[in-house]
Each structure stands twice: as C-alpha cells, then as structure tokens.
Amino acid sequence: MKAAVIALPRSPARLWPYVGGAVGLVVLAAIPEFLGLYQTQLLTYGLIMAIAALGFNLLLGYTGLLSFGHSAYFGLGAYTVAFLLQWLGIHSMELYILLGLPVAAIVSALFGFICVRHTRIFFGILTLALSQVLYSLALKFFWVTGGTDGLRVPRPTLLLGIIDFAGSGGFPRFIRSYYYYVLGVFVLSAAIMWVIVHSPFGKALQAIRDNETRARFLGLRVRRFRWAAFLLSGTFTALAGILWVPLNGLTTPDVLYWPFSGEIVFMTLLGGFRNFFGPIVGGIVFTFLKTYAVASTEYWQLLLGTVLVVLILLLPTGVVGALSQLAKRLRTTREGAR
Amino acid sequence: MSLLRTVELRKRFGALNACDGVNFAVEKGEFLSLVGSNGAGKTTLVNLITAHLEPDSGRILFEDRDITSMTVAARIKAGIARSFQLVNLFDGLSVFDNVALSIFAREGKTAKITTLAANDGDVDREARDVLAEFGIAAKSELPAGELAQGERKLLDVAVAYALRPKLLFLDEPTSGVSSAEKAQIMDTVSSVVRSGAVTAVVIEHDMDVVFRYSDRIVMMHEGAFLADGPPDAIRANETVASILLGTPSPA
C-alpha cells in the first residue's frame, strides 16, 4: 500500500485547515497543564466522542446517508473490549484496539450490506432497527453481558504494558496518561479520515451524495461505495467505543440504546456536518455541554433540546460552519474596504 | 461497420409507444442530431442505449458487440457516455473536482483511498486541460452549484467528455439558456468533440442550431424514425417541416 503523502496545497485559502489543525493540536497538547483532573477527563471523553462523530460524518456529511444506529458500533467496540477481558484475560489497550477493530469491521460490513440497499428514511430506519437488535441482545443475554449491570473494564496497561496503573496514585496517573494516549489515537484517526475524504474514493462518495444518477453515469458502482463508507464509518465509531470503555470503567446497554445514536447525530450537527472539523468541535463541545447541563438542572434534556432547536434555526451549518462563514464575510468586507 | 446499431428496439410506457422497433445506426466520427417534438421518443432512445432504461425487446450493438444486457458501468467502459437534459452535476464539489472525478472513474482510480486526489499530477493536468478546452478554467475552484446556467451546461458536457468516450450522447445541451449563449455553447461543444474525434449524438430542439452543426439529422415521431439525412435533405423534407413547424414547407 502506497503511503499517503500530504503535499501542502499551493493556494493560501486551502492552507488554513492545516494551520487550524496544527494550532488546535498544540492547544490540545498543552491544555492539561492548565486543567484539573476532572476537566482533563472530560476532555478525553470529548476527544473520544470526536472520533465517533468523525466516523458518523463520513456517512452523513460525505456520503449523504443519515444513520440513526451508530450506537451499535460504539457499543460494539465497548463490549468487544469487555469480552476480550472476560474471556481471554487481555489487559493491553493495544490488543483491545488491534482485536476490536476487525470485529467492528466485520459487523459493520454485515450491517452495512443490509442497510445500503436503501437510502434516506429507509436507510435510517434499518440502521436504527439493527442497533436495537444489539441492544436487546446486550439486555437479554445477561449471563454473557451482565444485562443492565453491564460489564466492568478496569484500567488497562498502555503501550504494550510499559505503563500500568497498579498501586496507589493509579487513578490520577491514568487520567493524565490516558488523555495523551487518546489524543494520539485521535490525531492519527483524524489524519486518516482527512486522507480518506480527500482521496479519489472520498471525492466519489461526495459525488454520490450530490447526485447518485450522474455518479452511476461515470461508471461508479454506487452501492459498493456506500457499503465501503458504511464499513469505515462503523469501524471508526467502534474505535471510539474501544477507547471509551476503560475510561468509563464499565459498559452498559445504554451505549447501544437509540438515544445515544441521537447524541452522535446531535454532536455532529452541533459542530457542523458540512465541514471536516465540525464533528470534532461538536464532540468536544457536546461532552462539556451535556455534563454541565446534567450537573446544573434536573431538566437537562429540556436544556439540550432547546440548544438543538436554537442551533437548527440559527446555525444550520453548526458552530464550525458559522465560524467559517463569519471568517469569509470578514475577509470580503476587508477586501471591499481596501 | 457502424459504431452503434440498434435492432428493432422497443419500449412501451403503458399505451405510449416510446420506441417502436427502432433501427438506428451511428457512424464513426459523425455529429448527429436527433430531433422531433416533445414525446417523440428521443430521450427514451438515448436512455435505452445508455442503460438508463431496459428495452422491452430488440438488441443494441456497439462496435458489433451485443451490449443489450450490459450494465451502465460496463457500457461506459465500452465507450458510451452521456450528459443529461436537466443539468446533473456534483454541486457540492468544485468545478475542477467534477471533471477530475470523471477522469478518476475512467482510470479506475476511485478505489484509491490512501492518496490525496489533489496529488495526482496526471489527473490534475488533464482536468485543467479539459476545463480550458471548455472555457471554464477560470471557475475551477468554485463549487459547481454556484455556476451560471450556461457554464453549468458546459460543465455537464465536460464531465461526460472527460470519460473520453467513443460515443457521446448530449441530451439538449443548450436547453434553458439564452439564444446568445446557445451559439457559444454549441461552438465550444462541437469544436471540442470534433478535435477529440468523438462521435456525438445530440438531442436538440433549436433547428437553427441543428442545421448549423450536424453532419446528419434523424427525425423521430411517435417512437419511430420519420426522416434521416444530411441537413439539406431534412430542410427540404416536407413531412419534417409540417411536423416541426405545423405548416407546409415554404419550398
């Protein structure tokens, strides 16, 4: 396989995603110095959700398919880790990822094969239905899955056992180390996703999103592309689930339940699904928003619902979309004034 | 040997005979116009040949090979491309990407997932050349959805042309644009098609355009061929005139 080479684009307008990405990375790398343990932990959750939303957005933003069942892949990742621990006694994070991803890919391929036979609402309903099959399995087969109690996953070792968290002071060390671990996986995933959506394959997905008929008349096998996108999307979201479970310490059927799929949709819309960075910002902002909403009011769902309504009415392109429009407008005004 | 032949091609939509045993032949290198009133079956014929529709009966031969049961993708690979009556573009992609994607598709490169599209120098060069040929190079970076109607029409043809087909069907390349723009579009299209030695079949309503650019004109009426010949012969044909203009020929 030929390695991806990122040559910097010639036109300065195309440079800003790279500059923005680099600035964002520096901020993310430095910020734990200024944050408490709890905030660092929250930000770790945020980065994990960002990976899930990036995966989800390959389908929504780039292929034009709205999945209402992405909890399935997130939960699949989480439960696979729990089973690897329970059945094989595996404690290594690297093994969780290496063994979890193929499992996720196989199930995504299977579910995707069924779902991409349809588009629009029918596609959405199929994804929802399949995710709820997994949810009921996790709920009913309690002798395997622990039912509503779920399965516990204690802190794993990182970097092939070089870092472990046994003994006293393990928790704060874990939170600090795990943040950078997740940041590393996040940067790698985001870079891979960036290459995917800017590859000829990614352009073909966007073409199919914009105009299926014309795409067919370029000789593209539309369903096959949608299937491949589904597989990648599910696998990315499963990666998020794999990273999530050791941090949470426990996986319950909640991560397979449909409201969580809704949250993935919500965070992507919040950040903006028309922009590569939208789901990243959305995942992080949503995590903090939800945490503070839950902490500050009993009616947090009402609060989040209001945010969603306001968002769709006022910022239909999400936070990142609105910011980039603002930047564009400022640029043209400045050029006009000159 | 004709480039394309249809043998007794039939397609019915309920009571409507859209294609009534058509025997159609296209010769290599010609610029052929398909004319006739609305509902004459022109688009149906093109849809059948490009696998957008399945025929009820009959056969389609391309370079003497039976392609009747071939998929859209297989026919494109064989060398048949088309544009659409209502502009069909990838509006969210840039003008450049619209054409580049055609080239990626033709070269079988759309499965490439580990390299950036912008880093493919060959495709980049070719796409820029095609856009220059069609006179829309200055708009390369704009989203296709932001182009004016005339430019959209040109891009629509450019996307099909970039597949480097042997046979190119253009379904009303000048519909919905001003008459001033029509000539410009047809000049561009015909010069590009002729310089690239592409055989073209154009569905067109504007008879001035048809007479000016075609080598041969085929007239359809109620799913069948009514007349077939060079522009002069068609111009002199009284049946054609009476159907197209609703009046007897002035000659």
Task: Characterize the structure shown.
The complex is a heterodimer of chains A (338) and B (251). Chain A is 73% helix and 1% strand. Chain A has helices at residues 16-30, 37-63, 71-88, 93-115, 120-140, 142-145, 170-198, 200-210, 212-216, 222-248, 258-271, 278-296, 300-314, 318-337, and strands at residues 151-152, 250-251. By secondary structure, chain A is mostly helical. Chain A has a domain at 35-269. Chain A contains 14 helices and two strands, in the order ααααααβααααβαααα. The longest helix of chain A is centred in the middle third of the chain and has 29 residues, at 170-198. Chain A has a two-stranded antiparallel sheet with strand order 1-2. With 251 residues, chain B is of the alpha/beta class. Chain B has one domain (4-245): 3-Layer(aba) Sandwich (Rossmann fold). Chain B has nine helices and eleven strands. Chain B has helices spanning 42-49, 72-78, 95-106, 121-133, 149-161, 179-195, 207-213, 231-236, 238-245, and strands at 4-13, 16-22, 25-26, 31-35, 57-62, 65-66, 80-82, 167-171, 199-203, 216-221, 224-229. In chain B, the strands form two sheets. Chain B has a six-stranded mixed sheet, with helices on both faces. In chain B, strands 1, 2, 3, 5 and 6 form a five-stranded antiparallel sheet that branches. The mean pLDDT of chain B is 85. The interface between A and B is large, with 33 and 39 residues.
* Main β sheet profile of chain B: 6 strands, mixed
The number of E-state strands of chain B comes to 11
How are the strands of the largest sheet of chain B arranged? 7-8-9-4-10-11
User: In the CATH hierarchy, what is the architecture of chain B at level 2?
Assistant: 3-Layer(aba) Sandwich
Terminal CA distance of chain B reads 36 Å
Q: Name the structural class of chain A.
A: mainly alpha
Q: How far apart are the first and last residues' alpha carbons of chain A, in Å?
A: 49 Å
Q: What Rg of chain A do the Cα atoms give?
A: 20 Å
Shape of chain A: globular
Largest sheet of chain A: 2 strands, antiparallel
Indicate the mean pLDDT of chain A.
88
Which range best describes the helical content of chain B: under 10%, 10-25%, 25-40%, 40-55%, 55-70% or over 70%? Answer: 25-40%
Query: Strands across the major sheet of chain A, in which order?
Result: 1-2
The SS-based structural class of chain B is alpha/beta
Radius of gyration of chain B (CA) equals 19 Å
H and E order of chain B: EEEEHEEHEHHHEHEHEEHH
